[in-house]
Write a structure and sequence with these properties.
CATH class: Alpha Beta
Structural class: alpha+beta
CATH architecture: 2-Layer Sandwich
CATH superfamily: Histidine kinase-like ATPase, C-terminal domain
Distance between the termini: 35 Å
Shape: globular
Radius of gyration: 16 Å
CATH topology: Heat Shock Protein 90
Number of strands: 8
Strand content: 25-35%
């Protein structure tokens, strides 16, 4: 029952964030969000998929890492980055790190060709060798969230060695 309530709360958060992006209305209040807790909440729906692929989760998150952000937006951005990593990593690991206002999600997956990197944040863009089911909206949503809240998103990747996506938060979103 607790798992169902948690899933319902996550769906509600996602819907609020998507409605916010669609309407361009005022966001809810920023709040102190523990980075480790945010990662764990976003990871929860992917546990079975990650376990089935024997994908290890690594965290390099200093104690007391807190961001002052609109929680549903951070949750939706992390969920899309984790989904991407889970879908394109057949084995290996997904690594989360946080340092000086930058939250990174890296994987040991298939990677992205240099020629495709400039296009990955476009709506409905699918890589040339992409055989995964999906709409091609996940990274576009992450980009839109970052723009909406004054964050930045970047990607570094190479085929066969994996990808790292980073959310860069301005000083106003960091809390010591």
């Amino acid at each position: 029952m607790h798992a169902i309530a948690g899933a319902a709360a996550r769906i509600e958060q996602t819907m609020r964030a998507l409605l916010l992006l669609a309407r361009e209305t005022q966001a809810g209040d920023d709040e102190a969000v523990d980075v480790r807790e945010a990662i764990d909440e976003a990871l929860a729906p992917f546990r079975d998929q990650l376990d089935a692929k024997n994908i290890r989760i690594e965290r390099i998150i200093p104690d007391n890492s807190v961001l002052r952000v609109y929680r549903p937006a951070l949750h939706l951005a992390l969920t899309n980055l984790i989904k991407n990593a889970a879908n394109y990593t057949d084995s290996g690991s997904i690594k989360f790190s946080y340092d000086d206002g930058t939250l990174s999600v890296g994987d040991t997956g298939r990677g992205i060709a240099a020629a495709e990197l400039p296009h990955i944040f476009k709506r409905h863009y699918r890589g040339q060798a992409d055989h995964q089911a999906g709409s091609g909206l996940g990274l576009a949503i992450v980009k839109r969230i970052a723009e909406r809240f004054g964050w930045e998103v970047s990607a570094h990747s190479s085929p066969s060695s994996g990808s790292t996506f980073a959310l860069h938060f301005p000083a106003r979103n960091r809390q010591s």
